[in-house]
Recover the amino acids of this structure.
């Protein structure tokens, strides 16, 4: 892609994020994005085709921001996949759920479908590290089925979280959600709880000011 094309694509992407943040997913149409970006609609469909492809990129970029931040840390024990995932998850949900506009967007996307359809690729890689760290033997089909169960349960939980609404803290939420798959895989419950707790404590020491979902 030529430099001008890269600039145009990034411009459309940033305008999309801005409008999603200000107006939500449902109230932001492609025509709104191209109008604010002052570009032909054909360029949007050329680079992204659909709004959902922009959403996939937003989630992927957000996850990578947090992952890159954690990679730079030199904290003892952080190489453990469960502990590291707990730290990542706490930052992930803290930045989303404690910002009203981010919350709205996250809920709107969740209503459409499970986040597995959006975030499945990088979450799958994270869970594969569980298998490697604990030398687990599991078939690919069984592993996939556990992921579907995990994400289906997460979706139902979050629909209740937003619609009831639930008063669970981010700590409580991560303890619950990040404990599901390790326990289904048969990893020791006490070890899982201890690792998640340590991950949360580490996450709270990390400077997250430069990590953004849609907005601050």
């Amino acid at each position: 892609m030529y430099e001008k094309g890269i600039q145009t694509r990034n411009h459309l992407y940033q305008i999309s994020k801005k409008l999603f943040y200000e107006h939500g997913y449902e109230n932001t149409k492609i025509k709104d994005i191209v109008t604010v970006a002052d570009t032909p609609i054909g360029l949007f469909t050329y680079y992204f085709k659909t709004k959902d492809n922009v959403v996939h990129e937003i989630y992927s970029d957000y996850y990578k921001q947090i992952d890159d931040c954690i990679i730079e840390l030199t904290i003892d024990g952080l190489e453990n996949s469960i502990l590291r995932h707990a730290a990542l998850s706490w930052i992930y949900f803290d930045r989303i759920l404690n910002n009203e506009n981010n919350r709205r967007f996250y809920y709107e996307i969740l209503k459409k479908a499970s986040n597995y359809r959006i975030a499945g690729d990088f979450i799958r890689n994270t869970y594969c590290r569980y298998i490697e760290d604990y030398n687990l033997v599991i078939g690919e089909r069984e592993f996939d089925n556990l992921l579907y169960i995990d994400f289906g349960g997460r979706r139902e939980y979050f629909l209740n979280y937003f619609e009831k609404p639930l008063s669970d803290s981010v700590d409580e939420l991560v303890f619950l959600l990040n404990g599901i798959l390790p326990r289904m895989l048969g990893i020791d419950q006490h070890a899982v709880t201890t690792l998640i707790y340590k991950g949360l404590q580490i996450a709270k020491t990390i400077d997250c000011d430069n990590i953004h979902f849609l907005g601050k």
About this structure: The mean pLDDT is 92. The chain is about 75% helix and 0% strand. The first helix runs from residue 3 to 23.
